[in-house]
Design brief:
Elements (H helix, E strand, L loop, with lengths): L7 E3 L4 E2 L2 E2 L9 H16 L7 E4 L1 H17 L12 H7 L18 E5 L4 H9 L2 H8 L3 H4 L3 E8 L5 E8 L5
Parallel strand pairs: 1-4, 4-6
Antiparallel strand pairs: 2-3, 5-7, 6-7
Amino acid sequence: MAALPACIVQYQVPVVRGEAAPEVRRDGDSLADAREREMAAILTGSAEQRRPRLAWNAILAQVARERARDMAARGYFAHVAPEGLGANTLVERAGFALPAAYDHALAGNNIESAAEGYDSAAAAWRDWMGSPHHRAHLLGLEPQFSAQSEFGIGFAQRPGGRVYWVVLIAEPGGR
């Protein structure tokens, strides 16, 4: 099967051919924004990406950044925060409605890929591409992931140390 053309990110913050629009730089520290833009370029520009379109979403971006910063600040790495909350619950509490078919348990996760310890977006991406589940999620390779068309990215660095990446990709709520 031939690969679909590279994704085009639409509305709010367009990313076309791997280059983020200036609006993506509007909040947070410049290092995180630059790192997040790098990851967005890889996600949307991969020749293996099966989604015809991806759209940056402000809520998913906020939650992804908060997840990465929380892991960096508290020195843990997990898909579930120490309080038992997964990505699905966190995005819903932030106002993003997930489809009914998603896991609505407190620790539910149908939307998150996370990485720890990779200094560059390319290195984190290579790690994910070596994991069948993360690869399927990030590239939309399975039916459960192919309808996920909105994304947010978070990057944080623990003072003097480890880095954390979070990519949230979700199907627009209620569909």
